[in-house]
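**Polypeptide and fold**
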Amino acid sequence: MNNWTSGFTQSELDRAQERYDIRFPPDLAALLLDRSPVGGYNWNADDHRIQEMLAWPTELLLFDVDENGLWWPGWGERPAEKGARQEVVRDAVRQVPKLIPLLGHRFIPQTPEIAGNPVFSMHGFDTIYYGANLIEYFENEFGGTHLIGETRYVPFWSDIVDW
């Protein structure tokens, strides 16, 4: 089975980065110029889907905070009022590296803007590494494995993996 389809042009990637206020890490940009995963995001046409997935990390953390009673210790004391909790969560997520969707709820952090960032499978506080880097991630995703090598630390996201 072929897991890949054609890639994007540089101008298409530039437009996507501008449209979604993101920066593809260099290894992701190089990959997307060459090929794109089948079932991945069409950075030219999947506007609603991409917007939903860019909001996913915040929305799932809010769900865990409101529905499951979870609270990250680094956010300070948990406010009693739902609106105040949501404000704390939204502000905190704006401060951490933005997650760029790859496939489903698999994400790569935008920063640091160097090759080799880990890939996260993010479902609120139920977040795990799904690859130490893009190559390992796609080997795991398409090969049905879950082998994780040494990962680069990414503020907050690596912390909740270990929480």
